[in-house]
Amino acid sequence: MTLLSEVFNYDFSQHPVDEPLSDEILASMTGLRGFLDRVIELSGTSNPSVNDFITSSGRGTLREFPVFTGTPAQVADQMESWFHADACDGFVLAATHMPGAYEDFVNLVVPELQRRGLFRDDYVDGTLRDNLGFIRP
């Protein structure tokens, strides 16, 4: 529910899961508008319920994206395999639990990726704006 609420910038936990959400509630969601339109289309109703959001979006479910699991070395193996097979040029991480998922990844998997030369262990000076050559407004 947290991940779903994050995408739509709306607290879904205040509603029963099978209660249709009003037009007013849907209009108050300030998150991804295209994602909202997709949920409405896939659910087949102009006033989807929280359950419709979960089912239609897949957000926060194991079917949303491929899941790499195992020890830090096993997760790094899977990421390395995808990277070297040109299946991707990077990864977007989604928390599997809160709090602590991102900290676990940084503290356990990143060092393994660094040992393999797949993740930087040093950063260039300056801000992203500076490194891209943009002038400060």
UniProtKB/TrEMBL annotation:
GO terms for molecular function: monooxygenase activity; oxidoreductase activity, acting on paired donors, with incorporation or reduction of molecular oxygen. InterPro entries: Diverse_substr_monoxygenases, Luciferase-like_sf. Keywords: Flavoprotein, FMN, Monooxygenase, Oxidoreductase. The keyword Transmembrane helix does not apply. PANTHER family: ALKANESULFONATE MONOOXYGENASE-RELATED, C2H2 FINGER DOMAIN TRANSCRIPTION FACTOR (EUROFUNG)-RELATED. This is Luciferase-like domain-containing protein. It comes from marine metagenome.
